[in-house]
Design brief:
Layout: H1 2-16, H2 19-29, H3 33-44, H4 47-62, H5 87-95, H6 110-116, H7 126-143, H8 159-165, H9 169-178, H10 182-204
Helix pairs in contact: 1-3, 2-4, 3-4, 3-5, 6-7, 6-8, 7-9, 8-9
Length: 205
């Protein structure tokens, strides 16, 4: 039926698209709440593969885009607040809470993608972008708090470090509060990698 074709087309975009394609797709599917709900519910009806696809849509498309206040039926009657621009992320996490604990092919969790993603939001000042990014990070974090203590397999940084590298210091501080001991662990990890590089240079000399 029509929903099945829509899901197949979505899977094709996710598998073969580029980040430009994913950004465009994300902006389109969150424009209408009814379309977004129909798509996500159709996807999740396929128990295992559907969850994987929903995870990839969240990581690649949704964490980088925000609901527009100008043309959306998501936020009619709601106050102009950053948290209302991230209702699509909350919808996914409510529909399928387990996606927050699912790693992708690179062993990354959604929190790693959330803190590492650059923020794409039209007609928003830098200050607003930081608030929007904070809201996204905290929504994903609250869905699976242990992720704050797991290093990103790509950068080898903890989520609080990745957030700080994107100048989202508010999110970085909030994530660090979950496990303050990560500071010493991060420092020791950096020293360990430095010693390893020195040994490699000596052995090659």
């Amino acid at each position: 039926d029509g929903k099945h074709i829509f899901v197949q087309a979505t899977a094709f975009v996710i598998k073969y698209g580029t980040q430009i394609d994913w950004d465009r797709f994300g902006k389109q599917i969150i424009k209408k709440k009814s379309i977004f709900s129909a798509l996500t519910e159709a996807i999740i009806s396929d128990d295992v593969d559907g969850k994987r696809l929903l995870r990839d849509i969240l990581n690649k498309c949704l964490l980088r885009n925000f609901i527009s206040y100008n043309n959306s039926d998501w936020i009619k009657g709601l106050k102009f607040e950053p948290r209302n621009a991230t209702l699509h992320v909350r919808k996914v996490l409510e529909l399928c809470p387990s996606v927050a604990r699912m790693v992708d092919k690179d062993k990354r969790l959604p929190l790693h993608h959330a803190v590492a993603s650059s923020v794409h939001s039209y007609n928003a000042s830098h200050y607003n972008k930081v608030l929007l990014h904070y809201e996204v990070v905290m929504k994903v974090f609250n869905a699976y708090k242990p992720a704050a203590s797991i290093r990103d397999p790509i950068t080898k940084l903890y989520p609080f470090q990745l957030a700080a590298s994107n100048r989202n210091y508010k999110a970085s501080f909030s994530l660090l509060l979950e496990n303050p001991n990560l500071v010493s662990s991060a420092i020791n990890g950096t020293k360990g990698r430095g010693r390893k590089r020195k040994r490699m240079r000596k052995s090659s000399a």
